[in-house]
From TrEMBL:
One Pfam entry name: ParE_toxin
Record protein name field: Plasmid stabilization system protein ParE
Keyword vocabulary terms for this entry: Toxin-antitoxin system
InterPro entries: RelE/ParE_toxin (IPR007712), RelE/ParE_toxin_dom_sf (IPR035093)
Domain of life of the organism encoding this protein: Bacteria
Organism field: Epilithonimonas lactis
Amino acid sequence: MTYHLSLSPNAEADLLESALWYESRQIGLGEKFTKKVEGYLFRIQNNPLHFPLKRGNLREAYIQKFPFVIIYEIVENEIVVFAIFNTHQNPTKKP
């Protein structure tokens, strides 16, 4: 089955903000972060059931080497990414 993957405006903002923060710390690190996230998004799109259900229909994919989790839901043939959440933040802010 082919799935269409889309990022919510919040997830897009999370990705951009985090990449800019990493880039400000070390040149090239923001790009490494973005590529790592894109790799996980590709994996999610190709095998969305691989990552575990956490709350209701939401699934979470923890990113290796960066303290982030991708939170998404599968709705028919579409995967909606709600957040790219920094796990060092207060967990009560987690969507």
